[in-house]
Amino acid sequence: MIKSSLRPTLYVSGVVSAALLTMTVWSKADAADAESLYKKLENLPPTERHAQLVAGARKEGKVVWYTTDAPRPTQVIFKAFNKKYPFVKTLFIRSKSRKILDRVLTESRAGKHLFDLAKTSTETFNLYPVEKTFARYSSAAKNEIPSSMKGERWTSLFTFIRAIGWNTQMLAEKDVPKTWEDLLDPKWKGKILFDQSSLPEVGVVYDNYGKEKGTALLDKLGSSGNLKLRRGRTQITQLLAAGDAPLAVTVYPYRVERMKKKGASIEWGLLNFTPGLLQPVSISRNAPHPYSAALLHDFLLSEAGQKVYARMGRLPANPKVKTRNPKLGTAIKDPRLKIDRPDSAKSDAKVVLKLLDEKILKKSFKK
To answer: For 271, which of 28, 91, 203, 261 is 20 to 30 Å away at the CA?
Structure first.
């Protein structure tokens, strides 16, 4: 699949669109206030509410999702959604959370409302003008999600764990670092793969060590020469398996488990403070296709949608659906796992972003 290096690519049910210009541009005057629409539907019986959503979605004919998920899992979930709602054309733009933020803010300033749903991140959520950008939303599907995993304007689809990874042929488990301080040891010089977009990692250090100690630790880590900066955790996990380095901070356990089944000699575990990332999805307050947006949102949270995520190795948000990996089920209860809600993050997102840029990226690139 070809992706433009100049801008995010628009995917149409897994097929690359010729150009973003084919999308309808809605002005603020044209766009319905999705929040007002959903408020009117709240008191309807579930069957009648769903019927109205389906009728409206048939007229709209499509839905646009800005997401941080990779194309493959998004296409898998869309395939399941389209089995139930074949009349809704599914489109998505995939990018990093910081780029989605920039895109949404740029479109808003231009008076354009192009997306229906956005899957953001805990570290960028509060950088949006939340009340102006995202609609309050309530539904039976959302009610099934625990209160710790939702807010008025967002609901987590699943939880990602950002774990430390190691190559089992290069490193015994007993020698794997257990704390962030352990990563400062000179013996790890040039031996720790580290993703450039590690905002949650910086945040968990800053939050749990405190401002002074956390900042000093990040400064030492960036200056240590221990980090091998790379972009993307898929690449990092592949490099780890290939023996490019014995350690990776951090990797996604589901990807490690998938590669282990194919024979890769890698494993994952938890540092003393390990980021647990809720995956918030929100509906645009100015959604151009609000009926289709609601149908997709509710499908993602439903048992059917959550089972799709579970099959892909995710930790589902819906308690009716269990993870297929017992180790993940244990890790989600581990006190070393630190989970922040997007609407009540401990640290200021702008502070964390500055720390990543100045203490880790700039200093590591100089090495």
So the answer is: 261
